[in-house]
Amino acid sequence: MDIDYDKEMVGTVAVTEKDALDLAALTRWFEANVEGFAGPISYTKFKGGQSNPTYRIDTPGASYVLRRQPFGKLLPSAHAVDREYTAMTGLYPTGFPVPRTYGLCEDPDVIGSKFFVMSMADGRSLWNGALPGIEPAERRELYHALIDTMADLHLNQPDAIGLGDYGKPTDYCARQIARWTKQYKLSET
Fold it and tell me: What residues form DSSP beta bridges with 67?
C-alpha cells in the first residue's frame, strides 16, 4: 500500500477536543515566559510525528511550535520533551540548525502535560527517506546535506555547549535495550 506522505503527514489540522489546550492558561504561560509575546493565540495541530503531539501556535506578530507529552499515564522515561528542549537549547547558540527554544513548562497543571515552546522554522518535511518524486540530482544534494549536518552535530563538544551532564556517556546500546524491554513489558498490562 502506497502512502501519500505529503497528504497524510504534512501540514496542520484543526485541533480535536481530545487534543485541545487551555488557551487562558497557555496565554498566561506565554506572557510570563516568551519574550516579546503578544496575543491572542490561535493554534492548529501538526499532522505527523505524534509520539509527542506538536502544535503550531500563531499570534498576530509571530508563530511558534509547542511540543507536549501525550495526556494521560506515561511509561517511565518515555516522551521526554525535556530532553529535546535541553539538547536544542544547547545546540542553538552554536549555529546548528535547530529552532530557538523559548521555555520548558514542567507543570502539568498549565495544559495537562509537560511541554516546551520553540520558534517556527519554515521548511519542508521529508517523511519518506527514499525521496520519491525528487529528481536524482536534488536527492543527492539532500542526502549530502543530511550527512554534513550529522557530521556537524558530532563536532560539538557536550561540555563546551552546556550539555556535559546530558545523558550518560557510555553503554548506550545496552541501556536502550534494557529500557525498551522494560517499556514493552509494562505496556503489556
Answer: 54, 116
